[in-house]
């Protein structure tokens, strides 16, 4: 291998240079986004069933759907809500599903099978399987009090933006559809002797598209266009209605006609107090650079801004700016890490050797980026973090190679001989150490699920950079070292050399005492685990406060809008408030990947508040919570900041199952009380259904039959009076506008007038409702909740800053010990507890592969179970620093800390490998085990300490960064590595003295 390497120096140099140029080109052109993309595993199914109450929707729609969906193997769970007239089912696919299109096709087949069991009057069924699409840009169109005008301008703006490269689709929110309302006057109808059905028939006959044919005049066809449909609203008002005596009156004599927004109210959006219409631009992820996409959108907006005057076009949320800020900050962290690492290397190795080692950093970085881009990689914060973590590790191989070549040159070995000997001696051990690091990250690479998808860029980038660094370390670096290193005339005894001799002597003199001290330190470190806070993922570092508003079930949207406006006005009075965006009737656009999407509902709303700094959000969150409790007691809200990691309803979520509604309600109240007294919990709420008042119309069938009326006639009359019946369509616009026939009062019809409305017979005779029916006020269920076809209720809670979900759940468990749940109640944790368990289980599923690879590389290198066992003991040595480091830094132990532990395993195992490799070479040379260990410690102390120093130095910018995501991981690696390095240099060699007696024996060739 070495001979070939020497013969191909120029080819190797050209390949390295070309790959570096590829990296430069890739960095300037590759797609960029802030966070990784996820497979489409979440979907929302909506089924309309007009007129059915929640119980009927559950029985006739939800249960058949659940039965069919459970037969789809790819479905993890289906969580549904049945409300009056509608069923909403949230479907989640299994975490190991990546071919989501095929899975959703099978879900649609299950939907069609369920439809066969539905009643005939069940309406539209729609599945949205792109729930996780996050708009890159949200624009607000304002400047007019007319939402109809704004909707038209928003549609025009949409058409101007659709052809921008990278646009996947554009969605409108807060816009309104129109209707032409025909408000019938009951008194006028009765006086004229006409019925609503007569009006409906007349409108249908008058508004038709009927061909008139054509004439041929002088060889030219002339189309004949009869006036068979409405041209304008005046034509509708003038429509003649025939009276019983044969005369006619215009429709305006019996109805008021106007054009306006559809009823009931559609979702509404406000930008800093101004009513606006939103455009959400969804970008083609994975292929588009978000930063350039934002530039293209701004350029287009600048070009067309004048055409939209006097309307305003504002940016509500602009994700490309966040992407640029995030990647720029991480890039500076990367540069700072490189500078610190280079300084550490120069300090520990000198200028000449340090320069050679430092050259590997830009080479590995550029080649890795080029290959990452060729493999379809996207540059996001996870990939950059993977590179930052690997910086200090990847120069380990170069340090060892350069140190070894320099030592041989100092001994008088010729240059090429030094190169050959170093590559021959170290290619195997360094390959094994690199392989063990790759093995440590293999479970993270192979695991599946939302958490694994989010963090997969870390193992991909680390494994890629380490592989490239190893290849360069045994090829390019030795060639450069053999050319530029010079024998030192006098090797100065620096402090590192003195420390190495001291540690070697200490190990050889007191191995037993050192092993005992190591065990004591491990035990003391593990004893700190009760003080660790558990947190699945930290909150985001964006200065935004999210207020989720829940009004009581059955609340009209107008009331929700009034309460939301009052709360927004109060929030604006706070000095830390920069701007406020309000959404009513829905939860607004999901401008951040972690936000939960909820279906449209008149009692739902969301307020998004931007503050000056992240620190100001804490005080504002507490103020909003206190203000709402005092001034808006009917409003049930949750207040917090943006989270990170897989989306969840709340950090603390408890689901309770029991077939008896009353028993389940009792259990819910107990858990609710338990969570309210648990440490750190706030915004504790449950979804128990108190019901909603309803007006039941009891028709006397016998009396109604004497008038020639049945229950269907009554229901149709009531629906027409309140909500309205679509009579026809006005087709003179781009989109047809419905003509809605209803009473003047519509949904504002008073209860006192309800019995006075008229029900019309087939002959057109009017019969007062009071003559055939009575009115009764009842209490109906507002909603039914099911999970996989089983009734369930849920209690959720947010957490105060500094508290973890484990503390809240421990407090709940202590409460339930004193107040046990009713017999037969099943309790299930969701939220962060479920997400953490799923992520850990996914890692444990693939962990055997990592362990197998680790053992493979170790046995391949050492061929000794004793040596492998000693090396593996370095893993618990890492805990000596991890737990104290997290406790002292105040960092919680979560998935990010677990990533740090995995990285740490690979590093400390590497240190042990290079240590034992030198020991084995000394044993081969005939040294005693005690002297071999002493010399191994003296020889490898400098490379091990340099690797530790560069890794720690490279992570310092992350540890002290303003990001909330990466400091826990950085502190886990830093503290664990500092402690484990010292113990690796002391405890591991001490164990070798106690356990190993000599070199690995050769296999005996005994007689058969």
Please provide a written account of the structure:
The chain is α+β, with helices and mostly antiparallel strands and 1008 residues long. It is 52% helix and 18% strand. Strands 1, 2, 3, 4, 20, 21, 28, 29 and 30 form a 9-stranded antiparallel β-sheet that branches. Strand 8 and strand 9 form a beta hairpin. It is elongated.
Short description:
The protein is of the alpha+beta class. Helix content is 52%, strand content 18%. Strands 1, 2, 3, 4, 20, 21, 28, 29 and 30 form a nine-stranded antiparallel beta sheet that branches.
Task: Tell me roughly what share of residues is in helical segments.
Answer: 40-55%
Shape: elongated
Average pLDDT over all residues: 86
Distance between the termini: 37 Å
Tell me the radius of gyration. Answer: 36 Å
Number of helices: 32
Low-confidence stretches: none
The description of the largest β-sheet is: 9 strands, antiparallel
Strand content: 15-25%
Structural class: alpha+beta
Count of β-strands: 30
Annotation keywords:
1008 residues; alpha+beta; nine-stranded antiparallel sheet
């Amino acid at each position: 291998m070495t001979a070939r390497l020497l013969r191909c120096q120029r080819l190797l140099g050209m390949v390295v240079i070309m790959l570096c140029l590829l990296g430069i080109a890739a960095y300037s052109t590759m797609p960029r986004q802030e966070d990784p993309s996820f497979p489409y595993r979440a979907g929302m199914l909506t089924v309309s069933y007009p007129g059915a109450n929640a119980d009927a929707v559950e029985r006739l729609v939800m249960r058949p759907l659940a039965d069919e969906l459970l037969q789809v193997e790819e479905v993890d769970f289906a969580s549904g809500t049945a409300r009056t007239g509608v069923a909403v089912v949230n479907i989640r696919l299994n975490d190991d599903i990546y071919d989501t299109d095929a899975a959703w096709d099978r879900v649609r087949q299950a939907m069609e099978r369920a439809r066969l069991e539905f009643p005939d009057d069940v309406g539209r069924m729609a599945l949205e399987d792109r729930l996780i699409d996050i708009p890159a840009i949200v624009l607000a169109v304002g400047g007019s009090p007319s939402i109809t005008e704004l909707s038209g301008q928003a549609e025009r703006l949409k058409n101007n933006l659709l052809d921008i490269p990278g646009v996947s689709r554009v969605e409108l929110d807060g816009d309104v559809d129109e209707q032409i309302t025909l408000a019938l006057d009951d008194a006028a109808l009765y006086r004229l002797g006409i019925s609503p059905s007569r009006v409906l028939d007349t409108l249908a006959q008058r508004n038709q598209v009927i061909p008139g044919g054509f004439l041929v005049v002088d060889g030219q066809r002339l189309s004949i266009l009869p006036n068979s449909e409405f041209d304008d609203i005046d034509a509708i008002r003038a429509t003649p209605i025939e009276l019983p005596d044969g005369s006619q009156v215009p429709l305006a004599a019996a109805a008021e006609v106007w054009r306006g927004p559809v009823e009931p109210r559609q979702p509404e959006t406000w930008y800093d107090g101004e009513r606006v219409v939103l455009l959400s631009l969804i970008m083609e992820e994975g292929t588009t650079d978000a930063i350039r996409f934002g530039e293209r959108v701004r350029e287009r907006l600048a070009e067309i801004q004048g055409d939209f005057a006097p309307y305003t076009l504002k940016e509500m949320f602009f994700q490309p700016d966040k992407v640029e800020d995030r990647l720029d900050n991480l890039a500076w962290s990367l540069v700072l890490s490189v500078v610190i690492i280079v300084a550490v290397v120069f300090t520990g190795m000198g200028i000449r050797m340090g320069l050679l080692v430092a050259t590997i950093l830009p080479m590995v970085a550029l080649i890795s980026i080029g290959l990452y881009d060729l493999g379809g990689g996207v540059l996001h914060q996870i990939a950059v973090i993977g590179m930052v973590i690997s910086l200090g590790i990847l120069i380990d191989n170069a340090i060892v190679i350069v140190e070894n070549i320099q030592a041989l040159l100092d001994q008088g070995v010729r240059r090429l001989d030094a190169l050959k000997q170093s590559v021959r001696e170290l290619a195997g051990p360094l390959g094994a150490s690199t392989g063990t690091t790759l093995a440590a990250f293999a479970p993270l690479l192979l695991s599946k699920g939302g958490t694994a998808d989010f963090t997969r860029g870390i193992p991909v980038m680390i494994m890629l950079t380490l592989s490239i660094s190893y290849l360069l370390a045994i090829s390019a670096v030795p060639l450069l070292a053999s050319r530029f290193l010079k024998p030192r005339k006098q090797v100065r005894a620096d402090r590192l050399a003195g420390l190495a001799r001291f540690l070697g002597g200490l190990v050889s003199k007191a191995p037993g005492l050192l092993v005992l001290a190591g065990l004591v330190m491990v035990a003391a470190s593990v004893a700190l685990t009760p003080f660790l806070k558990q947190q699945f993922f930290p909150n985001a570092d964006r200065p935004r406060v999210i207020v989720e508003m829940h009004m009581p079930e059955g609340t009209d949207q107008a009331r929700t809008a009034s309460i939301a406006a009052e709360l927004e006005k109060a929030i604006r009075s706070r000095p830390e408030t920069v701007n406020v965006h309000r959404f009513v009737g829905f939860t607004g656009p999901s401008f951040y990947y972690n936000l939960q999407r909820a279906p449209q509902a008149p009692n739902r709303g969301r307020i998004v508040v931007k503050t000056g700094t992240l620190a100001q959000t804490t005080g504002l969150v507490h103020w909003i919570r206190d203000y709402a409790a005092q001034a808006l007691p009917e409003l049930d809200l949750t207040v917090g900041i943006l989270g990170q990691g897989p989306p969840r309803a709340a950090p603390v979520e408890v689901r309770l199952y029991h077939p008896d509604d009353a028993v389940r309600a009792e259990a819910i109240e107990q858990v609710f009380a338990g969570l309210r007294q648990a440490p750190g919990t706030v915004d504790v709420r449950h979804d128990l259904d108190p019901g909603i008042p309803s007006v039941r119309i009891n028709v006397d069938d016998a009396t109604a039959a004497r008038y020639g009326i049945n229950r269907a006639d009554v229901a149709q009359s009531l629906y027409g009076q309140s909500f309205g019946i679509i009579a026809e369509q006005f087709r003179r616009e781009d989109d047809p506008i419905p003509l809605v026939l209803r009473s003047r009062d519509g949904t504002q019809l008073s209860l006192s007038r309800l019995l006075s409305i008229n029900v019309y017979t087939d002959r057109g005779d009017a019969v007062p409702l009071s003559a055939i029916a009575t009115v009764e006020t009842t209490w109906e269920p507002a909603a039914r909740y099911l999970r996989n076809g089983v009734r369930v209720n849920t209690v959720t809670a947010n957490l105060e800053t500094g508290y973890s979900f484990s503390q809240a759940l421990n407090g709940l468990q202590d409460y339930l010990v004193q107040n046990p749940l009713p017999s037969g109640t099943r309790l299930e944790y969701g939220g962060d507890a479920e997400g953490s368990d799923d992520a850990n289980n996914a890692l444990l599923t693939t962990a055997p592969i990592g362990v197998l690879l680790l053992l493979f590389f170790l046995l391949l290198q050492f061929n000794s179970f004793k040596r492998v066992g000693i090396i593996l003991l370095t893993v618990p040595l890492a805990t000596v620093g991890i737990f104290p480091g997290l406790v002292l830094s105040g960092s919680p132990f979560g998935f990010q800390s677990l990533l740090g532990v995995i990285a740490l395993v690979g590093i400390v195992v590497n240190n042990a490998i290079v240590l034992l490799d030198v020991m084995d070479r000394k044993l081969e040379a005939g040294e005693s085990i005690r002297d071999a260990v002493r010399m191994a410690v003296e020889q490898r102390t400098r490379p091990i300490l340099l690797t530790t120093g560069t890794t720690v130095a490279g992570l310092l910018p992350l540890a002290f960064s303003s990001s909330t995501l990466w400091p826990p991981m950085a502190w886990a690696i830093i503290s664990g590595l500092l402690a484990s390095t010292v113990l690796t240099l002391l405890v591991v060699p001490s164990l070798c003295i106690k356990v190993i007696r000599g070199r690995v024996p050769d296999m005996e060739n005994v007689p058969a």
